[in-house]
Automatic annotation (TrEMBL):
This is ABC transporter permease. The chain crosses the membrane at residues 28-46, 58-77, 84-109, 115-133, 190-208, 239-257. It comes from the Bacteria. InterPro entries: ABC_transp_permease (IPR001851). It comes from Lichenibacterium minor. It is found in: Cell membrane. It is a multi-pass membrane protein. The keyword tRNA processing does not apply. It holds the Pfam family BPD_transp_2. Keywords: Cell inner membrane, Cell membrane, Membrane, Transmembrane, Transmembrane helix, Transport. One of its GO terms (molecular function) is transmembrane transporter activity. GO terms for cellular component: plasma membrane.
């Protein structure tokens, strides 16, 4: 009996390829869409002053989202970043306002650069705790970072018994003046926070695309077992991404405290949700193994512009929360559809070549 060859599917992959391209460009499309809509509906939305202000707001979320991207790419999640922001803000405020009281009755005062370094170290330390819980004690990332979320927030509250550190101007006697420059200073009319974001984003993109560590991060997210068998030190990679996430959160805590010249223990509440939304909207797959720093930054711009535009239009904060939730859901749905379409297009191409 002669075998009859199966016909190749008549559906041309060109249509699927076009749709796939649009899905990959969804973050750019969303960014242009919100810019056009709010420039029409919100007065003064495209003014230079408002664009600079929005860029500063976006920078805060983008820092967290970049760190979150590396974590999600490895197949994890970091729910503690918002609490790390609050804790680091309080650490900076406490060191500048009260110094560090030693048991021997002596108080150590830190200069602004020393305060910044100590605060960054605290953020990294919380990341180390997250990494150890996940890699050494095998606690699920969701549970581990949920626990540190509460611990870090509680520690921030304990530092001042729930009160604010209201004046971080420092004193000449303690040589700790000038903290306001970090959050309020400008270079070429752009806030230092935006320039800091450019540096961190470029460094993170280089790490992800051009270093062995970056390739290991994606390998762990793609297939952790295969990565381990190939010689990649999976636990070290996971430790790094959580430490980097804590570092990014510490930067945000410093910028907010510097901008307000005050520290409050509730700083950073729900920031982790915006960071996750920006990462996912930027193309980072929640199943791990896929994501880009550039896409995440653009996703942060979409979330930030969406929030600021809704405020300028007078939309209720309750509806803003609803809209952000819908954006997250839509991003995840599109991501799943993109993966399925990629598989289908790949199969069609293989069938045509065979």
């Amino acid at each position: 009996m002669t075998a009859v060859p199966q016909p190749i599917p008549s559906t041309a992959p060109s249509g699927g390829t076009l749709l796939l391209t649009l899905m990959k460009l969804r973050t750019f499309i969303a960014l242009f869409a919100v810019l056009i809509v709010f420039s029409i509906l919100a007065p003064n939305f495209m003014s230079t002053a408002n664009l600079i202000l929005m860029a500063k707001h976006v920078a805060l979320n983008a820092f967290l989202a970049i760190g979150m991207t590396f974590v999600i790419v490895t197949g994890g999640i970091d729910l503690s970043v918002g609490s790390i922001v609050g804790l680091c803000s309080m650490v900076a405020g406490g060191l500048l306002m009260n110094g560090l009281a030693l048991p021997i009755g002596y108080t150590v005062w830190f200069s602004v650069p020393e305060t910044v370094l100590v605060t960054l170290a605290i953020g990294i330390l919380v990341g180390v705790v997250n990494g150890l819980l996940i890699t050494r004690l095998n606690v699920a990332p969701f549970i581990a970072t949920l626990g540190t979320l509460y611990v870090a927030r509680g520690a921030a509250l304990l530092m001042s018994e729930g009160r604010t550190f209201p004046n971080l101007a420092g004193t000449e006697a303690h040589a700790n003046q000038g903290f306001d420059v970090l959050g309020g200073g400008r270079f070429l009319d752009l806030p230092y926070a935006v320039w800091a974001l450019v540096v961190v984003a470029l460094a993170a993109a280089y790490l992800a695309r051009s270093t062995p560590l970056g390739r290991h991060i994606f390998a762990v997210g793609g297939n952790e077992r295969a990565a381990g068998l190939s010689g990649i030190r999976v636990n070290r990679v996971k430790m790094f991404v959580y430490m980097f996430s804590g570092f990014c959160a510490a930067i945000v805590g410093l910028i907010i405290a510097s901008e307000l010249m005050a520290s409050h223990p509730a700083t950073g509440e729900t920031f982790e949700l915006n960071a996750i939304a920006a990462a996912v909207l930027g193309g980072t797959s929640m199943s791990g193994g896929r994501g880009t720093v550039g896409g995440t930054v653009i996703g942060a711009f979409v979330i930030g512009i969406l929030g600021d535009g809704l405020v300028m239009m007078g939309v209720s904060s309750f509806w803003q929360t609803v809209i952000k939730g819908l954006v997250i859901i839509a991003a995840v749905v599109v991501d799943q559809a993109q993966r399925k379409l990629q598989q289908r297009v790949a199969l069609l191409q293989v069938a045509r070549q065979s």
